[in-house]
Amino acid sequence: MYDYLIVGSGLFGSTVANRLKNMDKKVLVIDKRDRVGGNVYTENIEGINVHKYIICHLIHFLKYGMML
Ligand SMILES: Cc1cc2nc3c(=O)[nH]c(=O)nc-3n(C[C@H](O)[C@H](O)[C@H](O)COP(=O)(O)OP(=O)(O)OC[C@H]3O[C@@H](n4cnc5c(N)ncnc54)[C@H](O)[C@@H]3O)c2cc1C
Q1: Which atom of ligand 1 sits closest to the CA of residue 40?
Q2: CA of 21 relative to ligand 1 center, distance in Å
Q3: How far apart are CA 66 and CA 6, in angstroms?
Q4: 47: CA distance to ligand 1 center in Å?
Q5: What is the rounded CA–CA span in Å between residue 30 and residue 37?
Q6: pLDDT at 26
Q7: How far is the CA of 12 from the centre of ligand 1 (A)?
Q8: 9 alpha-carbon distance from chain centroid
Q9: What residues have CB less than 8 Å from 30, skipping those under 6 apart?
Q10: I want to staple 25 with a disulfide (CB 3.0 to 4.6 A). Which of 14, 17, 20, 39 is the partner?
């Protein structure tokens, strides 16, 4: 039994899941893709992390995290 179901394992879903886990909540994260990370997913090709979907060059965070 889970406390929370999070749809989407992008930056937002992953961050919220991590925060909830740190609060001892049981979290299930599902995603329609067969990989985690959403649009910032990268593949390591010959030692270099290559973006597969978009080219994020800098990820901006709020002072205390994205939401919680
Ligand atoms: C071209 C481009 C450049 C960008 N550059 C930057 C940058 O330089 N710096 C920056 O801070 N931000 C940048 N962004 C924004 C960046 O993409 C977001 O900040 C961040 O990746 C969004 O994360 P997210 O978790 O909200 O969404 P996403 O990364 O889109 O994750 C959503 C996840 O939900 C899943 N999903 C969606 N619908 C369903 C469903 N029905 N069922 C199951 N799973 C589902 C998707 O498969 C995906 O894995 C850029 C965006 C674009 C388009």
Answers
A1: 21
A2: 21
A3: 15
A4: 24
A5: 11
A6: 98
A7: 8
A8: 4
A9: 5, 6, 7, 8, 9
A10: 20
- The position carrying tokens 């879903």 is 13
Q: What is the pLDDT of residue 67?
A: 45
Say how far residue 58 (Cα) sits from the centre of its chain. Answer: 15
Question: Residue 54 has what pLDDT?
Answer: 77
The answer to whether 13 and 38 are in contact (CB under 8 A) is yes
Q: For 5-53, what is each residue's pLDDT tens digit?
A: 999 999 999 999 999 999 999 999 999 999 999 998 999 999 998 888 8
The alpha carbon of residue 17 and the mean position of all alpha carbons in its chain are separated, in whole angstroms, by 8
pTM (predicted TM-score): 0.84
Q: Pick the residue whose CA is nearest to atom 6 on ligand 1.
A: 56
